[in-house]
Amino acid sequence: SLRPHGLEGMGVLLYAAKSTGLGVQSPLCSFGQILLCGPHPCDLLSPRRVDVLVMTPWFAPIIWDGTFDSAILDAQFRDTTIGLTVFAIKKYVVFLRLFLETAEKYFMVGHKVTYYVFTDRPADVPQIALRAGRQVVVLHVGSYRRWQDISMHRMEMISNFSRQRFLHEVDYLVCLDVDMKFSDHVGVEILAPLFGTLHPGFYAADRQSFTYERRPLSRAYIPRDEGDFYYAGGFFGGSVPEVYRLTTACHQAMTADQAQGIEAVWHDESHLNRYLLSHKPSKVLSPEYLWDERMLQRPPLLRKLRYVAVPKNHGEIRNR
Question: Does the keyword Transferase belong to this entry (predicted)?
């Protein structure tokens, strides 16, 4: 789910453009845009989006509606197997049915998918109809008293299972929160060696507003004069080896923090942001891929909402 912080900062994503000199009104396609534009030569010099930033300062594409061609990418990733990890611990299992049903409608349609469901309540995992080449694998794990501990141990569990089985079973991992639903196409356009998603509460903000961990004692610490974007903890992924490296590093950092008696301000999300600052993602997903309609007013630049939060009572769900 979205962390309920910083959701008031809205607008066009201009911060990186202003701070690096990358404008959003260039009349020519960047190389990344050419790769993602339509198949006809006449399209190559006609960028489909000039209202948003489509490239990071390190030349990683930022994925918005209109910046990719699904047919080309589906062919490119035709033989790819995708693993989706989701945690349904304690009462969060109630979100699984809607999550899986909407995933079958919108997530990686036409591709081989394994849903890895981490849960302490395997008997409560719903049975749903699956498309050909897709399966649900239930991974029985323990629970923790505090929801913060569940959130932080997610990195440890993804790391362990990546080493034990994911490396041998799938090509890419997509790591998502369960208290959400798919509402539009989410396909292979997101796949890259390492990708993160812009947090919808900060995609228009400058780095001074980001809620990074600011205490130097924490391994998640980011100084106020550093930072690229603020990434959401509820949607990240990449190739299995890259996700293994990310989750292992975050788990080790959280273990070191625990030994120092400190807990990062936004738990695993804080450590994710620290990691992605030092290890730049090769692709960045726009807020189309993570949104909360109850807390945020949808701006015109968001043509699609692909993955959205569902209503919930945080206190009731987290404490049972």
Answer: yes
Per residue in 165-224, pLDDT tens?
A: 999 999 999 999 999 999 999 999 999 999 999 999 998 888 999 999 999 999 999 999
pLDDT of 305 strictly over 50: yes
Q: Which amino acid is at 164?
A: Q
The yes/no answer on whether domain 72-318 falls in CATH 3.30.230.10 is no
Burial 277-290 (b: 16+ CB within 10 A, else e): beeebbbbbbbbbb
Annotated binding site for Mn(2+): which residue ranges?
177, 179
Residue positions forming the annotated binding site = 87-89, 92, 177-179, 199, 211, 269, 292
Of 1, 4, 5, the closest CA to residue 210 belongs to 5
Q: Rounded CA gap, 195 and 182, in Å?
A: 18
Q: Could you report the per-residue pLDDT of 10-37, keeping only the tens digit for each?
A: 333 433 443 333 433 333 344 344 344 4
Active site residues: 269
| Over residues 111-140, mean pLDDT | 98
Using CA atoms, how far apart are residues 119 and 232, in angstroms rounded to an integer?
Answer: 22
Distance, in Å, from the CA atom of 139 to the CA atom of 207, rounded to the nearest integer, reads: 38
Instruction: Please provide the distance, in angstroms rounded to a whole number, between the alpha carbons at the two ends of the chain.
Output: 17
CA–CA separation, 268 and 306 (whole Å): 23
What residue segments make up the domains of the chain, in order of their start? Answer: 72-318
